[in-house]
Specification:
Layout: H1 2-6, H2 8-40, H3 44-59, H4 62-73, H5 80-104, H6 108-116, H7 121-152, H8 165-172, H9 176-203, H10 206-214
Length: 226
Amino acid sequence: MHYLLKHHNDAWALTLVHLRLSLLPVLIGLAIAMPLGVAVQRAPIARRLTMATASVVFTVPSLALFVALPVIIGTRILDEANVVVALTAYTAALLVRAVLEALDAVPIHVRDAATAMGYSPIKRILKVELPLSIPVLIAGLRVVLVTNIAMVSVGSVIGVGGLGTWFTAGYQTNKSDQIVAGMIALFVLAIVIDVLIALAGRLVTPWERAARRRRPVVSPIVGGAR
């Protein structure tokens, strides 16, 4: 903790780099996963192929992908693009599953009601299904963000910046306090981002809060005695 307080300026600079490398793949991955999930949800064969591909992508070791990408896409070994592209692949693989689960969570009778009201398939998806799927999607997004924050640290092994550089530097110089400081900073960052995403999810789903307030509270005593 003393090392973290003493080097707070460095910690802030590394945190900004870490956030950029963590959040950018999420934005790109979400832009890929959302339309892909919507497109394959009602197509069984395409859905199975998409899920199988996503599973294969996520089983590739991250460090191996970081090292192999410069050969594949022609970047330098220390280029941040390697981490961004690799994490985008992992993020899209996770988020497409989350999108499908979120869309599947929308009650069938709600879809039928929207169709009966004259909504076209596109309009129904945009105005009914996607808004109602937000709570489930937010839950998946929180998992993906925390996973990305952890995986960016692996990039420090190939020399890409972020809080993970404190791990490698501390290991090379035998400074355990630097390693601990990196762990604390990483933990705090993950907690803060997770809380912010959870709060954002509550803000964009006011109907969920209203439903919770209207939900009756059942006394544990009722029905407990025989």
